[in-house]
Each structure stands twice: as C-alpha cells, then as structure tokens.
Amino acid sequence: MRKKTLLFGFLTFLITVNINGQNSTEFGIKAGANYAQYTPDFKVGGNDFVDYKRKLGFYVGGFVNIEIADKIKVQPELLFAIQGTSVLIEDVQVTDSDGFFTTVSDYESNINESTISIPVVVQYLFNDKFYMEGGPQFGYIIDRKEKIKKDPFEEFGGIDDPNSDFDYDKFDLGLSFGFGYRLTENLGINTRYFFGLIERNNTIKSSVLNLGIEYKL
Fold first, then answer.
1. How much is the pTM?
2. How far apart are CA 121 and CA 116, in angstroms?
3. How far apart are CA 70 and CA 203, in angstroms?
4. Which domains can be identified in the chain, with CATH numbers?
5. Nearest C-alpha neighbor of 39 from the set 214, 204, 216
6. pLDDT higher than threshold 50 for residue 71
7. Which of 44, 45, 192, 205 shows the greatest Cβ crowding within 10 Å of its Cβ?
C-alpha cells in the first residue's frame, strides 16, 4: 500500500507542476517488442539447475511528456506488456514405476506474464533529436501462464498443469534507462532496459530489453 501511495503522490506532483507552471505537455502512444528473461539462473551445488533464457514479447500503451526545464522532461507511461522467460532444465532423469533408469531428457517451457507497467522516466535532451532517460518502473502482473514445450515425463502421463495452484508475486519494481531519437517532430524510436530491484517468489528478478516507436499526438 505504501508503494502505491508513493506512486500516486509522485504522479499528482507532476500534474500539479504542469498546471501551475508554463511548461509544455504532450501526449502520445507507443508500442514495440521486448526481449525478457528471469535472473539469476537457479543453481544447485554450484551448477545451473534451471536456466532462464530470453524470449520475445511486446508492449503497447501511452505516455505524457512534461517539460520541466530547458533540456529536461519527465515522462510517465502506462503500458500493457507480454513478457516473461524461457525455462530450460537439462538432463532430467526419468525412471519407470519399478525404479529402473529409462531415459535422460530436457524440460523446456515458456512463461508469459501479462503485465501493467508504469515507468516514470526523466529525459535529458542533448539536442532536438537525441535524448537519454532513466527512472523507476512499477509493475503489476495480472496473469501468468507457463506453456510446456518439451516434457521429459510425457510417456508416463506428463507433468501436471504448472499453472494450477501457483501463487506468484504480482508486484514488481525496478529501474529503467535508455535512449531515444526523434525521426520527425512526432515520430521517434526508443530503446530501454529494465532490471528488477526486488525478488519475486524469493528467487527471481525481471530483466527486460525494449525496442519500439513513439508517436506524439
């Protein structure tokens, strides 16, 4: 609750600054692709047991761009994203009901998280075209699904649904930083990296690369 209060308080401050001042405000939409994974890999005895790989996803949403100084702007955003990770567990030993060794195979799956993200970045403009940015990002995972791609237990009936009765942490918090370039007055490209600051489910943090376009209305 305290984290949500701080977020809404900060957004209210930005709106108040804009109303009371003479700063320009622009609205826009943005969309693009992300390349995400969990970190770090889960290790047992110093060796990787669960290896997290990056997977492609997407994001779409809108933003408000507020000028607060000659070369400084603040941009709160509201985004919907599909992101997550690929999971690889190598050399899973499978035995039959009699206890005899049968085979060794890998487990592979994709985890998709439907996420509402609220980045609040401060932008520094080097010139009219190029800028750098950074700031906090808040996230709320509204849905999480794991789809098995390779099941080493398939011939023995398969693994139970990995989504059943899985209680996952829904709140995420981290930092984003990146760069942008204005192609025209209204159209630009933007790349950004987000890294989580808090552990979710006591083990994982988010790592997300974004590349997309922005259009000022």
1. 0.80
2. 16
3. 43
4. 26-216 (2.40.160.20)
5. 204
6. yes
7. 192
* Residues 123/74, Cβ–Cβ less than 8 Å: yes
Q: Using alpha carbons only, what angle is made at residue 35 by residues 214 and 177, rounded to the nearest 5 degrees?
A: 55
pLDDT of 21 over the 50 cut: no
Cα–Cα nearest to 54, from 161, 203, 171, 193:
193
Give residue 46's region: left, alpha or beta (phi > 0; psi -120 to 50): left
∠ CA 141-32-116, rounded to 5°: 15
Instruction: Provide CB contacts within 8 A for 21, sequence distance 6+.
Output: 68
Average pLDDT over residues 86-110: 75
Structural element, H or E, at residue 36 = strand 25-39
Range 169-185 average pLDDT:
95
Count other Cβ atoms within 10 Å, centred on residue 72: 13
Spell out the residues 6+ positions from residue 153 whose beta carbon is closer than 8 angstroms to its own.
94, 159
Contact (Cβ atoms closer than 8 angstroms) between residue 25 and residue 65: yes
Q: C-alpha 142: how far from its chain's center?
A: 13
> Are 210 and 191 spatial neighbours (Cβ–Cβ below 8 Å)?
yes
Phi, psi angle pair for 11, to nearest 5°: -65, -40
